Amino acid sequence: MSEQLINNTISYIKALFAGNADGHDAEHSFRVYKNALAIASGYPECDLSLISLASLLHDVDDHKLFHTENNSNARTFLKDNGISKDRIEEIVTIINSVSFSKNKGKTPETIEAKIVQDADRLDAMGAIGIARTFAYGGKKGRSLEDSVQHFYDKLLLLRDTLNTDEAKVLADKRHTFMEQFLEELKEEL
After folding, report:
1. Are the C-beta atoms of 58 and 98 separated by less than 8 Å?
2. What is the CATH classification number for the domain harbouring 155?
3. Is the pTM of this model over 0.85?
4. How many other C-beta atoms can be found within 10 angstroms of the C-beta atom of residue 88?
5. What is the structure's pLDDT at 77?
6. Which pLDDT score, from 0 to 100, does residue 145 have?
7. What is the spatial distance between Cα 153 and Cα 46, in angstroms, rounded to a whole number?
8. Which of 33, 35, 48, 107 is the most buried (most CB within 10 A)?
9. Residue 107 pLDDT > 80, yes or no?
């Protein structure tokens, strides 16, 4: 995979998410990419090009953000950058395995999909996860109580859904931090 393709993907993400401040911004995609590469370092058999592109593009067709069908944003970008149909299908399959709400109880089939799913879930935990929860809640007009409920409905469940040992190690500290935050918030309230 070329450095130019990664640079093109980064530029595309920056343009597509310009002005977004709800926690699903370009910086989120870049953190997921960084997390995915860190996790992948423990799995030398994985395909880094699939992981890189899927992690960077994982939110470009997110139903909360875009009204696209069949991953059209990702597919168009990849096709325009010379990616073969077979590789596009592999990348889209990984992207479709990421969503927490759409994949409850499902384990991704490939190590690449497991890594990208874990990388995204890690970014929903810890200090970043807390910040993203309240940013998204504010955009959606949610009350403080509704945003806090999101921790119990999703965020505190994430650690037990992780697929890779590397992600589980990273998740422990973030999970503990969220528990401590909720205890402090409860005390202050």
Report:
1. yes
2. 1.10.3210.50
3. yes
4. 19
5. 98
6. 93
7. 32
8. 33
9. yes
